[in-house]
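Example record

The entry below shows one chain as it appears in the dataset: sequence first, then structure tokens.
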Amino acid sequence: MSHASETETLATSVSDNGGVYFVPAFVGLGAPHWDADARGTIIGLTRGTTKAHLARAALEAMAYQTRDVLDAMREDSGVAIQSLRVDGGATANNWLMQFQSDVLGVNVSRPVVQETTALGAAYLAGLATGVWRDTSDIVANWQLDREFSPTMSETNRCKLVSTWRRAVDRSRGWSSSESASAAGD
């Protein structure tokens, strides 16, 4: 694989993740898990695992991590999201956006302008200099490129999320147990 855009082709070349889950805890787990001792894991490998399963698991991990944060926000606020607006380079991946919608169980809306970090800075500068009167002028500029609606059954969604959480649990505390085990040798 020479370019990130190839992950969509790989992910769609298999019918599922083959039981493979990737937890990208390279510097520990951030929100909402907050475990500095967690380490990245790839779990569920078999001799039938292919690079397509690994690519799919990596993409799925992005959606699961978003789900984890949004679940924590819902638990803290008591408010469930009704839809999700996305931006950034990964949003060009249609398979990922559909999976994100499926794993959240809500519509995911991708804007025409997908790279919005620089656009946000430009909007702030425009507000400061009077190009726009207020944020309502900016909101009016947002345009929908595509909306993804959930197609996954609730049963399948719950099963996948539950297995993801088991994989996250396996990655937790890895560094501290590794250190403790090495100290005992």
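Notes for this example: The chain has a mean pLDDT of 93. The CA atoms of residues 22 and 61 lie 6 Å apart.
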